[in-house]
């Protein structure tokens, strides 16, 4: 409130309404906190203290983990240099803004941009340092994130196949008939992006139509039949597991995402065995029945792998370092864990 009253809105670490570290944790009886501010509800355990001895810290990667670590370390008085090989901060977090309903992620990046300026963090975009230049730092933080995991399906080198980063960057190049391999959070993100129609303006009227809200209250309870939403693509969302579709989605928002895709006539199948990919499409078995999905593209959302090109070289040069976020462990990595790990290391350096 003080920041708003002082006209310092850019200094506010805005809630992005994700529910991941607050409400979702309440319903699973976990420690409650906040995705964008992991100190929340742990202020006693995470006191804001200056470092006894300021040090020179290099952070490699300006995704969520690297940004959180750089911000926390600089706030404690360390001299931080943040290296990013891309042309902007955010990494895959930046790309995720394209997913309908996730535009608020830009608020988190706006906050980190403000903190980089406020705390005097030296940001080097479009830069990959050499190993010798890193030897002048007291500690190096490796936060280089993750890369898409390959599907392992025979024929995956076909021109029909795209990984999720390629599709996020250039959704306009994805055809009208699409199979999405993997129905975890990544797969649902991709399905929502590709099912989104440009005419969906995000207005109150559009929301009412989608969710069956009667603003005139002519229907009993103010509820009416929801309207089917148009989709520019025919989508098949597939998973190998026999588990219910969307079972790995967050507790409080998963049902919304399933309902949205169902309303856009997306076809969702579990218990899928992939056979091969060829010019005819994706050959597979769905619950034992062999089929061929004649699709324009197959988008692979089959998980992620750690991307750490630095640890072995830093160790060989006896340079003190720590690996965090997806670079440390890609299994079920999300922004909540990445930011928490980054902030926790930053306060300990």
From TrEMBL:
Keywords: Flavoprotein, FMN, Oxidoreductase
Family matches, as Pfam families: Pyr_redox_2 (PF07992)
Listed EC numbers: 1.3.1.34
Domain named FAD/NAD(P)-binding: residues: 56-310
GO biological process: fatty acid beta-oxidation, unsaturated, even number, reductase/isomerase pathway
Statement: the UniProt record of this protein carries the keyword Nucleus: no
GO molecular function term, any single one: 2,4-dienoyl-CoA reductase (NADPH) activity
Cofactors that this protein relies on: FMN
Signal peptide (UniProt feature, chain positions): none
Name assigned to this protein: 2,4-dienoyl-CoA reductase
Lineage start: unclassified sequences, metagenomes, ecological metagenomes
Name of the encoding gene: fadH_3
């Amino acid at each position: 409130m003080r920041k708003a009253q002082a006209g310092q809105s850019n200094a506010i670490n805005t809630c992005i309404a994700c529910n991941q570290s607050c409400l979702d944790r309440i319903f699973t009886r976990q420690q409650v906190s906040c995705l964008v501010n992991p100190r929340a509800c742990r202020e006693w355990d995470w006191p804001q203290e200056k470092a006894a001895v300021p040090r020179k810290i290099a952070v490699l990667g300006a995704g969520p983990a690297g940004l959180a670590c750089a911000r926390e370390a600089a706030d404690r008085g360390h001299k931080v240099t943040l290296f990013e090989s891309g042309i902007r901060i955010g990494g895959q977090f930046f790309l995720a803004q394209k997913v309908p309903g996730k535009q608020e992620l830009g608020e988190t990046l706006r906050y980190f941009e403000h903190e980089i300026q406020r705390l005097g963090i030296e940001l080097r975009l479009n830069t990959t340092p050499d190993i010798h230049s890193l030897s002048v730092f007291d500690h190096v933080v490796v936060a280089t994130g993750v890369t898409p995991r390959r599907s392992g399906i025979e024929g995956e080198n076909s021109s029909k196949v795209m990984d999720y980063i390629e599709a996020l960057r250039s959704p306009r190049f994805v055809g009208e008939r699409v199979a999405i391999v993997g129905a975890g959070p990544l797969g649902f993100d991709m399905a929502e992006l590709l099912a989104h129609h440009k005419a969906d303006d995000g207005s109150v009227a559009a929301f009412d139509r989608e969710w069956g809200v009667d603003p005139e209250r002519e229907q009993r309870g103010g509820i009416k039949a929801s309207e089917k939403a148009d989709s520019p693509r025919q989508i098949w969302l597939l998973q190998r597991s026999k588990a219910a579709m969307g079972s790995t989605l967050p507790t409080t928002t998963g049902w919304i995402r399933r309902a949205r895709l169902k309303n856009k006539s997306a076809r969702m199948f579990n218990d899928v065995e992939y056979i091969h990919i060829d010019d005819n499409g994706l050959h597979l078995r769905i619950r034992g029945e062999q089929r061929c999905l004649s699709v324009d593209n197959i988008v692979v959302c089959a998980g992620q792998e750690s991307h750490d090109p630095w640890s072995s070289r830093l160790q060989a040069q006896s340079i003190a370092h720590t690996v965090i976020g997806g670079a440390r462990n890609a299994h079920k990595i999300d922004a909540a864990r990445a930011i928490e790990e980054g902030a926790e290391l930053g306060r300990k350096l």
